[in-house]
Automatic annotation (TrEMBL):
Its main location: membrane. The keyword Ribosomal protein does not apply. Pfam families: TauE. GO terms for cellular component: plasma membrane. The lineage of its organism: Bacteria, Pseudomonadati, Bacteroidota, Flavobacteriia, Flavobacteriales. It is found in: Cell membrane; Membrane. Keywords: Cell membrane, Membrane, Transmembrane, Transmembrane helix. This is Probable membrane transporter protein. Belongs to the 4-toluene sulfonate uptake permease (TSUP) (TC 2.A.102) family. It is a multi-pass membrane protein. It comes from the Bacteria. The chain crosses the membrane at residues 6-35, 47-66, 72-90, 111-128, 155-178, 185-205, 211-233, 245-263.
Amino acid sequence: MEIFGYIASVLIGVSLGLIGGGGSIFTVPVLVYLFGIDAFLATEYSLFIVGISSAIGSVSYFKSGLVDSKTALVFGIPSVLSIFLTRHFLLPIIPDDIFKIGSFVLQKNTFLLLIFAGLMLIASYKMIRKNNKLTIKTEDSQSNNIFLAAGEGSVVGFLTGLVGAGGGFMIIPALVNLLKMPMKIAVGTSLVIISFNSLIGFVSSEGHHKIDWMFLGSISVLAIIGIFIGTQLSKKINGEKLKPAFGWFILVMGVSIILKEIAF
């Protein structure tokens, strides 16, 4: 199974480079089901893998002027606060056995994976559906939308801290629909936000587990290779056109995780 895990690690980067998100949606299932890593540790590894690959992938967008730094801060500051609070105060108080009904025991790892599967279903819906963008843009609505974007940044930070999801599937729609940002700039800005959030999340939780740096480094290198591939493909292929295909794939993965964790 590990060989499929290494191949999938490249796809993590390809997704990030091509559509500015979706990488973290692949990462945790790959680590848990293909490499057999504990779900809680997988969320920590995911933060590093997605964070470092997104940071490197964002460099080319910076050079091309395709990053809105101000918007990255609007998203980033509330996200970091949410990540810190979630990793330091919420996760530690979640018990190993959350509740028991008869012979069924909902354990912490299963709980995290089910939350992650739910996020996958939401992400798949956002990727599959057709986007009807608004074209009306006023000063007042733009100001209000910035506040909405900051609020969504807090939600993204919570999810990043809880399950190691970078939140690109939420960031991209917010940048495009709320702030009326062109797609390519939204992708570059999303990579900056994801890298910032994920690496802060990793640093804030580092030390809770013993890190296998050799393994983590090898997966990160493969994801970085993938993000270079995805970035190059984005110059020739419209990532928006590939989103539905990514969406259906993520939908199947999400349903499979739910069935595996509950039904089998």
